[in-house]
Every structure is written in structure tokens, then in C-alpha cells.
Amino acid sequence: xxxxxxxxxxxxxxxxxxxxxxxxxxxxxxxxxxxxxxxxxxxxxxxxxxxxxxxxxxxxxxxxxxxxxxxxxxxxxxxxxxxxxxxxxxxxxxxxxxxxxxxxxxxxxxxxxxxxxxxxxxxxxxxxxxxxxxxxxxxxxxxxxxxxxxxxxxxxxxxxxxxxxxxxxxxxxxxxxxxxxxxxxxxxxxxxxxxxxxxxxxxxxxxxxxxxxxxxxxxxxxxxxxxxxxxxxxxxxxxxxxxxxxxxxxxxxxxxxxxxxxxxxxxxxxxxxxxxxxxxxxxxxxxxxxxxxxxxxxxxxxxxxxxxxxxxxxxxxxxxxxxxxxxxxxxxxxxxx
Length: 337
Description:
Layout: H1 7-10, H2 14-19, E1 31-35, E2 39-45, E3 52-58, H3 68-79, E4 88-92, E5 101-106, E6 111-112, H4 115-118, H5 122-130, H6 147-163, H7 170-189, E7 198-200, E8 209-211, E9 219-220, E10 227-229, H8 231-239, H9 241-244, H10 254-268, H11 277-302, H12 313-322, H13 325-335
Antiparallel strand pairs: 1-2, 2-3, 3-5, 4-5, 6-8, 7-10, 8-9
């Protein structure tokens, strides 16, 4: 665990060990499982229960939250009743012993979803998550009143990093600006009718869905950017080409998108109203594409910094692929009427 300074000492502290009922003397071994752009995950086996657990170290916040790890833990606790998310066992965002937030949760089995063969298995998973009732008293989850506008404002903020960087390509700066202008034009023409609201994940990459098969438990992990909002925002993100292409080479056809929406509506049943889901999903898809492009532009600049804490070689390759002019021109097709 040498990648995170002080983590070896952290897992020996009394508060951590007592909260997880770990023996006073450390017996468990922590192994790197995976790292995203803002978190590093380790897996270990509890020496008493024999259960595999996941230790998540937070190194940054996409949402610019001071209490990022507590925010993520709160969403997971809200979603526990869905049976589709990991159970939270420990959270510490104090940053007193370690300068990063720490979360320990269940380790869930499964493999990353295959868009070719397992796409439809995600429909009941998302339907169960979106069907969890959120208390009226809920105040912690961020709730954008105009979600399309909120995404575009986030896009502008991220694009600014690329636009103002001397490292950015002039032609691409101009083209992404044109794409954003098309996005704002679409947003001005769309009136999302208010309807059912729930806890949404907003980051539905294939690697965040753990699949075990038909008739078995399939899960959604990685809840670092949840919101209280329209379930169609999740569907739009899940189906958008900027999402499907991220860890694979897949871009879904219109027919595949429609079949998935059909399966989702069927899985929801009568748990909440879905009459506007299809229309709303198609409103979110092009705006979600802009979020993907502008995030990649921002991240590309960040990846040029020599002191970047987390560096994923596969991510760096994808950043270049998303900023390729041919890919950007393909995305324009989703934004133009």
C-alpha cells in the first residue's frame, strides 16, 4: 500500500480496527484491486469472519466536495434496500490520521458487464435502484433543479481547463466550443417535465456494473457522484456513446437503445411512473456526450502534470481517442437535430 502515504499506519489505528472488529494486531493483508481517477481500492479478507472487504481511499472529488467520502457513504446507505449496492461498514472523512477519506464496504462478486451479451441484465438492476423511495427529509444529496443546464455548466467548467491550457490543440478548442454551443441550443429547446425523482448514480460505465448472470444478483458499484434527480439521467448516461466506448469499443445502435429502455420500463413495472422516461432519456444522451468529451479534455491536461497522484495508462489512451477529430465529429451527429 506504499502508493498512499500513511495508509500502512492508518489500518493499524485503534478506531479503524475496533469499528471493523479486527484483531488488535494486524493480520489482514491489503491488495490493490483497482484505481479510478479519484479513488484507489484495496481488497482484504477479514481475519475473523473470513469475508472479503473493500477499502476505498478517496484522493479527490469530481463534485468539489469537502466531505466526498461521507457523501458517497450516505448514498450507499440510502441504496442499501435495493440489494444492488455494497453495504457500508466504515467511513472516515476526518483526514486526521490520513490526508484522504477512507471507506470500507462489502466486496461484491461479479465481472464487468459485456455490452454484447449482458446489456439487458442492467435493466432490472437500475430499475431496482431507482425504485428505492427517498425520504422527504433528505437534504444531503445534491438536487439540481435544471439537470440539463447543470450538466452543461459542469461541461463549461471542465472545458475551461483545456481552453486555457497552452497544451490544448487550437482546432479542437474551436470544435468543442461549437459542440457546446449546440448543446446549449438543445437545452434551450427542451422542457423536461418534472416527475419522479430518485437517487441516481450518474456514472454508469460497464466496469461499475458487476454481473453474475441471468437469475443471479447483479450490482452497481462506484457511487462517488450520486444526485437526487430524474432516473432518465442515468439511462442517458448508460446508453450514451461516450459511456459505452470508455472501457470497450462499443457504440450502441438506436435499436439497442430502444430495446434497453423497453426492458427497463418493464422491470420498473408499477413502482413509479415511466411515461416520460423514453423522451427524457433521449434528451439526456447528447448532453451526456458533451460531459464525456469535456471531462476528457480536462483530464488530458491533468495527465500532462508530472505530480499526478493517479495515472492510468488505459485512461490516457482513451483520452486521446475521445479528443480525436473523427470521434468528435461522430458526437456532433448526436447534437444536431
